[in-house]
Amino acid sequence: MSLPKKTPAPVTLRQSADEAFATILLHNFQYLKQYEPVAYKGESIRGVHQVRVSYRRMRSAVKNFRRALPRELTDPMAGEMKWFSRELGPARDLDVFLDEVLEPLSGKLEPSAGEAKLKELIQKERESAYNRVRSAIGSKRYRRFCHDFEIWVKESGWRKRASGKQKKVMDTPIKKYAAKELERRFVRFVAFGKKRQEMDDDQLHRLRIQGKEIRYACEFFTPIFGAQSIQSFVNKMKGVQSILGTVHDMAVMPEMLDRIAEKAQDDDVTAYIKAIVESRTSARDELMAQLERDWRSLAGARRPWKR
Predict the structure, then answer these.
(1) Rounded to two decimals, what is the model's pTM?
(2) Does a structural domain hold residue 11?
(3) Is residue 176 part of a domain?
(4) 169 CB-side CA count, 13 A
């Protein structure tokens, strides 16, 4: 089966904020439904990843259009999306660890016996995590959410309880709404990031999330502001996000590995895990220096919505 490629939601300049919101949600929902069978089988790491990212995008869309939406309707929907993403989280974390940490380090650390044993343990953990994925996808709770959510989007269900002020925002031309929202978010992001070198891991993670939501918003509005200018900006954002993502992985990885080491009760595994953590954390200073270079490039970049 050929896997679908990600394309921007077909938002148009003629749409209102309300219409664009529905277009973005439905486009991402239909995309993730194509990846659900892939996630269920677990044969490709793209399955769980694409489903989780799609739900993140939809939650981000809710945040980006929050001024136009009644919270009593959107909060429960966003809560269900967050629950499902959380169910898929352990499988994704293990996929990333195997693909982006263990494989690049293969044959480079000692003790070599610890590497083979750890891989076997991680694979067992992965099997358990994918059982959790299959349980979530097959649950009545998830099927009910998907059914209700699709109807809600197609019928613009949020309008039923919207206030007069919210309906006025909904009717705003999408280009005007998007430009204002992107500028507001980017200014807040840059202001929050001024003390990035002094931030602890939790604060850097918050900075990363803010940047990710701006990137998703840019991608939502690609047809509005032009693919070339949006892509140039998004690439700079990806550079910053990639570094912040690696720093976050460094922060949370020891806890996951300690849990596995405790189960294993094996000196080779414990020693190999220690070597992995040391090899990763030693690169943190270099990453933070790269963050400075990429941050300056992003902060001074031409914003597509400011033309």
Answers:
(1) 0.92
(2) no
(3) yes
(4) 19
